[in-house]
Amino acid sequence: MAFWDRKNTAVQETYFLQVLIRYLPDKIYFKDRESRFLCINHELAKQFGLRDPIEAVGKSDADFFTPEHASRARTDELAILKSGQPILDREEKETWPDGRTTWASTTKLPLRGDNGEIIGTFGLSRDITAHKKAELEKKQLEDQLLQIRKLEAIGRLAAGVAHDFNNLLTVVMGRLQMATRRASQEQAQPDLDTALQACQRASDLTQQLLAYGRLQKAPLGEVDLNQLVRGMLLTLRSYAGEAVELQTELDPGLWPARFDPDQAEQIILNLVANARDALPNRRGFIQLCTGNVERQAGEAPYPTLAGGQFVMLQVKDNGMGMPPEVTEKLFEPFFTTKELGHGLGLASAYGMVHDAGGGIRAISAPGQGTCIEVLLPRRSQAVRAQTA
After folding, report:
1. How far apart are CA 56 and CA 184, in angstroms?
2. Which of 230, 257, 279, 371 would bridge 223 by S-S if both were Cys, CB 3.0 to 4.6 A apart?
3. Same domain, 358 and 330
4. In this structure, is residue 88 part of a structural domain?
5. What pLDDT is attached to residue 3?
C-alpha cells in the first residue's frame, strides 16, 4: 500500500506531526485541560534547556517560567477552554527564571477530541525578540529626533528674545556709563555702580541664551575634565552644602575632551545642583567620576552617536531616584520637578553636548539614586598638533 493512499491518513498525519515537532523553528506545544504539557517540539525543548521533548510531559509553564508568566498563560488557556475561541498572533513578553526577557508572536487554539469536545490547547509561538529590539531602537531614534526639534524651536525663541534684550541692555549700559562719568555727587556713585553690575549680569545671561539658541556656537577647545573638576571642588562643595559629601573618582589616564571649557564648567555646576536638589533634605553624597570609553556607531544606549573614543563624566547621587516616565523627559526644555523658574539647565546641557558630537543620558530608578552620564568626543593628538 502506498504511503499517500487516502486510506492511510492516520500514518500521514503522524508523519507530518513528527516533521513539525522535529524541524519547525517555531515553538509548538500541546496541553491538557490542566495546562500540563502533552507534547512539545524540539525547539521549545531547547528553550527549556531539556535534552529530549519527552522530559516536558506532565509539567507546566510554572516549571519553566516565572510565576507571573505562568499565571498569564493559565488565564489564556482557561479562557480558550471555556469559550473555544482562539488567540491569534498576539505579541507577548516571556520572562524566564534566569532573568532573560524575550518576545513572541503566539497563536493558541482549542484542542478537540474525536467528538468535538475541547480536551486541551495547542500553541505555536514564534520568537520576535530581534524585531521588538529593532522597534525599540527605532522609537528611541524618533524620540531623540523629536527632542532635537523641540530644542531647536525653543532655541530660536530664546535667541530672538536674547538678541532684542541685548540691544536694550547695550543702550542702558551706555547711558549708565556716561552718567557715571558725569556724576558729581558721591552718593549717586554706588547706585550707578550697582545698576551697571546688574546690567552686566543680564548681558551675561543673554549670551547664554544666544549660545543655547545656536546663534553663537561655542569654540571647541581642549578640556581636561580631571583638572576642571579639581579646580571647581571648593565651589562645588559650597554649592552642594555642608550636609552633602562630595566624592570624586577620576581616571588618572583620562583623555582630553574636545569641548568648550566654559560650557563644561556650566554643565558640571548644573548637574551638581540637580543632584543636590534630589537628595532628601539635601543630605547624602554626590560623586563625580571620569573615564575613557570607546563606542561603535549606533550602539545602545546612544543609537544616534557616531563611533569613536569619548571622555565620560558621571555625576551620581544617592537621592530619591526617578521613575522611567520622568527620566525619559528629563532633558526636555522646561520640564522640571522643581519649583517654577527652573527647567533649562539639563535641556541646555543636552544641547551643548549634542552640538559637540557627544551624548548625555540619565540612569535612575525610584529609591536608587540617579546618575547623569555625559560623553564628550576625545580631542585627538592630530588636532592638538595642528592647533599647537
Report:
1. 100
2. 257
3. yes
4. yes
5. 42
Q: Is 288 exposed, middle or buried (0-12, 13-18, 19+ CB in 10 A)?
A: buried
Q: Indicate whether 289 and 309 sit together in one domain.
A: yes
Burial 197-209 (b: 16+ CB within 10 A, else e): eebeeebeebebb
Cell match 530608578: residue? 365
- Region 158-174: what's the mean pLDDT? 65
Does position 109 have pLDDT exceeding 70, yes or no? Answer: yes
pLDDT at 340 > cutoff 50 = no
3-class SS at 144? helix
pLDDT of residue 343: 46
Dihedral (CA of 219, 222, 227, 229) sign: positive
pLDDT at 305: 86
Q: Is pLDDT of 387 > 50?
A: no
Three-class SS string for 320-348?
CCCCHHHHCCCCCCCCCCCCECECCHHHH
Last-in-domain residue among 191, 212, 233:
212
Of 150, 179, 212, which closes a domain?
A: 212
Cα-only R_g, the chain: 32
Q: How many domains does the chain have?
A: 3
Whole-angstrom CA distances from 219 to 183, 222, 230, 267, 370 are 40, 10, 23, 16, 30
* Rounded Cα–Cα distance for residues 334 and 345 (Å): 9
Residue 101 confidence (pLDDT): 84
Mean pLDDT calculated for residue range 166-172: 65
To which residue does cell 525653543 refer? 154
52, three cell numbers: 529530549
CA distance 140 to 314: 22
